[in-house]
Structure formats: structure tokens, C-alpha cells
Amino acid sequence: VQLVDSGGGLVQAGGSLTLSCAASGITWMINTMAWYRQAPGKQRELVASVGSHPDSASYAESAEGRFTISRDGANLYLRMNNLKPEDTALYYCFADLWTTGLRYWGQGTQVTVSS
After folding, report:
1. How far apart are CA 47 and CA 91, in angstroms?
2. Is pLDDT at 54 greater than 90 in this prediction?
3. Which residues on adjacent β-strands are paired with residue 70?
4. % of the chain surpassing 70 pLDDT
5. Using an 8 Å Cβ cutoff, are 106 and 20 in contact?
6. 58-71: pLDDT as tens digits
């Protein structure tokens, strides 16, 4: 499985961005997909995840009410509203596979929120 992230950029506080992740390869084996982020000097953290069913979406407390994760087949999206400077980070797409548990990461897309 290959994951390609896109959609990051520079935005003012209060603005919005939508991140996209395009998966290719053995996509029919994908189980969970998620977005993680890593800010400078901090550990990578889970932002939101979704299984094969849309009702399975879950969010970190920091993202709840502002971010929306969605999945369209092998493509993953993250709509981010009301962005804050503390949302500045490198955002990574993630996927794992049924049965094998193998994990894959995108290359990351930078989100920078100015105050």
C-alpha cells in the first residue's frame, strides 16, 4: 500500500483546510485509516481515525468539533475548521491492513497556522 498526502499549507487562525490521502496498491485489505500529526519537538499524536464504516470515526479531544474525517473507498480526507496556531504540525496519513496488521504511512503534509 502506498499513501500520498496532500492539501497542507499556510492559513490564518480561524481558517480552514482539507487534507487528502490517496491510497494505492492492495487497498481492499485496508482496515483502519487515520490522520496523525507531529509538531516540532513533540511526539506524533493521533488526530482522528475511521474504520470501514463511517460511524466508526473517532477524534482526539483537540480535534473534536473542529475536524471531520471522512473516507471514500481508498481515499481519506480531513476537513479542518477554525484552525489554531497549536494545530501547526506535519500531518501524516496512516493505514493498517486486515489480518496482517501491517502499517503504512504517507510522506506527510505541512500545516502552518499563523496567529
Report:
1. 9
2. no
3. 77
4. 100
5. no
6. 999 999 999 999 99
Q: What is the pLDDT of residue 74?
A: 85
Q: How many residues does the chain have?
A: 115
In whole angstroms, give the CA distance from residue 111 to residue 98.
30
Please give the radius of gyration of the chain, using alpha carbons only, rounded to the nearest integer. 13
Query: Maximum distance among all alpha carbons in the chain?
Result: 44
Instruction: Return the number of other C-beta atoms located less than 10 Å from residue 97's C-beta.
Output: 17
What DSSP designation does 54 have? G
What is the grid cell recorded at 48? 482522528
Per-residue DSSP letters for 55-95?
GG-EE-TTTTTTEEEEEETTEEEEEE-S--GGG-EEEEEEE
